[in-house]
Amino acid sequence: MKRLVLVLILFGLLVIEGIAIDLLPLRLLETEILIVPHWLFMFLIVVAIFFDKSYTFYAVVFSIVFGILIDIVYADILGVYMFVYAVSVYIAQILKRLFITNFLVSCIIAMITISLVEIQIYIVYSFVGTIDLPFMFFLTHRLLPTVVANLLFFLLVYFIFSKRLVRWSDEELQRVS
Description:
Largest sheet: none
Helix content: over 70%
Low-confidence stretches: none
Oligomer: single chain
C-alpha cells in the first residue's frame, strides 16, 4: 500500500515538473540562467535514503519507470533519463551504505547525485549533438543554478518525508516478515 502512495507522489511530481518553470520569477527567465527542475529525482533520492533497505531497490525500479516516462513526455532522446536516473539513484544507495546517513550526509548525497544527473545528461546530449554548450557556460549557467534549486526542493522533501518514509519502510518490512 505504501508503495502505491510513493507511485502516486512520483506521478504527481512528474506532472508538476512540467509547470515548474512557470513558477519562477519572470526576471530569472529572461537571463541566460537555466534551472532544470528534477523534483521527481530529488524525491527518489529521499526514497533511496530512507525507504530502501540494503537489500531492496524500490528507488532504482521507480527511477527506471519514471525516467522512461520523463523521456517520453519531456525529453528529446528516449532512454536518457531512464538510464541517468537509475545509475544516479543506485550511486545514492551505495553512498548511503558507506556513510552514516544524517541530514548533512543526505544533503551531500543529493548534491552529488543531482550533479551527476546534469553532467551525464550534458555529456549524452553533447555527444549526440542535441546541444552545443561550452562546459564552463554549462557549469555556471545551468549546473550550479540547477543544483541549488533542486537542493532547496530536496530540503523541503527531506523535512516532510524522511521520518514518514522510515516508518513506511519499517511497516513494509513487518508486513513481509
